[in-house]
Each structure stands twice: as C-alpha cells, then as structure tokens.
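Encode chain A's predicted structure.
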Amino acid sequence: MTADSEIQELVRQLRGLSTASSPEGWAALDLTFPQLRALFVLRRRQPLRVSDLGDAVGMSLASASALSERLARLGYVARDRDAADRRTVLLRLTAKAERVLAEQERRSTERLRRALAQMTPQERAAVATSLRAFLRVGALRNPPTPQRVEAHA
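Encoded structure for chain A:
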C-alpha cells in the first residue's frame, strides 16, 4: 500500500512538472495565477456575482472586486448589472478570455496526450482507474450547485 506521504510527494512533483513544462503558455499571458484561476471559475459558473467569485477562489469581497475590476480593464471580463437587482454586478467572460482559456486547455490536453502516449497500457489503465476514483470522490464532496433561477414578474 502506498503511504500518504509518498502520494503527497508524488503530487508535489507532478505540480512542479506541470508548471515547469508550460512556461511558453504562461509567459505570453498578462495574467497572474489568481486572475487565471478566476477566469476558469467564471467559465464554469458564469454569470457570477463578485461575492460568489470571491467565495469560489477564497478571497474577500474587496479582493474579488479589485480582481474583477483588473480583469475588466484587461478585457477578460464584462461586468453587467443584474436585471432582477440593479445593485448586483454579474461577471461574465469576454471572447478574449474564452480564447485564452481555450488555448490553455489545448496546451494542457496536448501535454497530457504526449505523456499518456509514453506510458505502457498497464500504466494508462492505472491512470484511468485513479482518475475515476478522484472523480467519484470529488462528486461526493462537491455536489452540483443549483443554477441561479431568475424571478419572473
């Protein structure tokens, strides 16, 4: 049986390999990691209130507000007023952000494809088994959140 400490070390090494293998993708972006992370969260859950974005990325409301303002100035995020509550600002991705995220995803997928191609069939099967387990456990801990329902008058 693999010890938890060995798994933690393997994950640390994998993270290092992941960041080290894609400097060309990150260098061209004028984004910090928290900004890029916020874009990925928005892609999954947009439109999103500033406070909900802050909750999702572990930031205070003030920090999330500053983050969303910076992303709007850079042209990655559009800020719209909620039709149901004009005081609420909703964030959504712009076409520019969608292109950046699609390119990051494409590069990541290509790196994964190359790595899998170098594995034996048994190693690929082990990866698939492990990923299924992570998805199963993740689904149990993070049930899908209900979509926001607009009030109709």
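The domain at 23-117 is CATH 1.10.10.10 (Arc Repressor Mutant, subunit A).
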